[in-house]
Specification:
By secondary structure, the chain is of the alpha/beta class. It folds into two domains: about 180 residues, 3-Layer(aba) Sandwich (Rossmann fold); about 120 residues, CBS-domain (Roll), CATH 3.10.580.10.
């Protein structure tokens, strides 16, 4: 091969690789669309059954299905559905004791004939433990013995031999994710609960809530709407937020006075004017259970540095942009 021929060959190889990658994604993408159309009553029944148990969702599967099962158990556990994985071979040597009568078993097997699953199947039948199967063949040992069988649509594997688990595992993974999200929404799993299970890393930092970093009580700069601007300015300078909130007799936050308001109303009579004449009415506010990232976004969008936190119109706290930055929310 000459030096001139080598770049041409490398280019052909790269093009062939790209075509293979696109073909695989196309095959698996079509399968997911087919799966979307295929899921129905068995899916909703499975979600309902899982949401009603008092124990945990126990995933099991052999080989590639086992790897998918481990991932799905982690996903469910992190989104509020207690879950873990039991290896079917280890289950036959004592790990069946990890499965209780309050649990439900979710078994994954494309063929439905995985021999290593037989002891788990028998165990669930003996102790009346709900068994949900995700299978490629309903007419199979696993599908026949399960309380609920979710059957994957018949789609070719993406490898040219049609043997390597590719399309089938992608569909199983996507189906498990769909179940996890359905359970999440049934349980009204909030971002604050998510943060409790993800305290570390970037996710935990991004999910800091406003009530975790806001200033409350006497730390809030507040005055009544009938006081003079002299008193309002004293309240502003006594705190470090560059603003003062204005409340009415019902303790509703009706306005805010900022440094910008002072500049716009600068005049000889400023100190004797009522605060209600100078304030900006209906200020931007946020809920205590909102994410600090949302508060930071509002402040950036509105070109302000502080935000009052209210509940039913009453001030509960105040958050400054620096509070978000100190919490590494960005």
């Amino acid at each position: 091969m000459t030096a001139a021929q080598k770049p041409c060959r490398e280019s052909r190889v790269k093009h062939a690789d790209l075509m293979v990658g696109r073909r695989v994604l196309e095959v698996e993408g079509r399968a997911l669309l087919k799966l979307e159309e295929a899921i129905g009553e068995s899916f909703t029944t499975a979600v309902e059954r899982l949401s009603g148990i008092t124990g945990r969702v126990v995933f099991t599967g052999m080989g590639k299905s086992g790897h998918i099962g481990r991932k799905l158990a982690a996903t469910m556990a992190s989104t509020g559905t207690p879950s873990f994985f039991v290896h079917p071979a280890e289950a036959s040597h004592g790990d069946l004791g990890m499965i209780t009568r309050q649990d439900a078993v979710l078994a994954l097997s494309n063929s439905g004939e995985t021999a290593e699953l037989s002891d788990i199947i028998q165990y669930t039948r003996r102790f009346n433990i709900p068994l949900i199967a995700v299978v490629g063949q309903e007419d199979s040992s696993l599908g026949d013995n399960a309380d609920i069988a979710i059957v994957l649509p018949d789609c070719p594997e993406a490898c040219p031999m049609g043997l390597t688990p590719t399309t089938s595992t992608t569909m199983t993974l996507a189906l498990g994710d769909a179940m996890a999200v359905a359970l999440l929404e049934r349980a009204s799993f909030t971002s604050s609960k998510f943060q409790e299970l993800h305290p570390g890393g970037n996710i935990g930092q991004r999910l800091v809530t406003v009530n975790e970093v806001m200033h409350t009580g006497d730390s809030m700069p507040l005055v009544r709407d009938k006081v003079s601007m002299a008193e309002a300015i004293l309240a502003m300078t006594g705190k470090a937020f560059g603003c003062v909130g204005v409340t009415d007799n019902g303790n509703q936050l009706v306005g805010i006075v900022t440094d910008g308001d002072l500049r716009r109303h600068m005049a000889n009579d400023l100190l004797v004017r009522e605060v209600s004449d100078v304030m900006t009415p209906s200020p931007k506010v946020i809920r205590a259970n909102a994410l600090a990232a949302e508060a930071l976004w509002i402040m950036n969008e509105s070109a302000i540095t502080s935000l009052f936190v209210t509940e039913q119109g009453e001030p509960q706290g105040i958050i400054h942009m620096h509070d978000c930055l100190r919490a590494e929310v960005a």
